[in-house]
Amino acid sequence: MTITTLSSRELNQDVSRAKKAAGKGPVIITDRGKPAHVLLSFEEYQRLTGQRRTIVEALSMPGLSEIEIEFPRSRALPRPATFE
């Protein structure tokens, strides 16, 4: 992982450079020489915030209909519920 530091002025002059650098690691953006912001790729942001796909998103992925899965039938008999 590469950490890049850019001044606000450098960011404004070359946004595409900052976006490319964010693909390799965090980009620290400074204001008057002091760190003020961090630019991350969206994937890195999701990893850091712990955001995961929902079950709907996971099941709507292309190609899933082509996967064959067989679930064996359970031979266990139902038991009466006990309430204590």
UniProtKB/TrEMBL annotation:
<protein>
    <recommendedName>
        <fullName>Antitoxin</fullName>
    </recommendedName>
</protein>
<dbReference type="InterPro" id="IPR036165">
    <property type="entry name" value="YefM-like_sf"/>
</dbReference>
<dbReference type="Pfam" id="PF02604">
    <property type="entry name" value="PhdYeFM_antitox"/>
</dbReference>
<comment type="similarity">
    <text>Belongs to the phD/YefM antitoxin family.</text>
</comment>
<comment type="function">
    <text>Antitoxin component of a type II toxin-antitoxin (TA) system.</text>
</comment>
<dbReference type="InterPro" id="IPR006442">
    <property type="entry name" value="Antitoxin_Phd/YefM"/>
</dbReference>
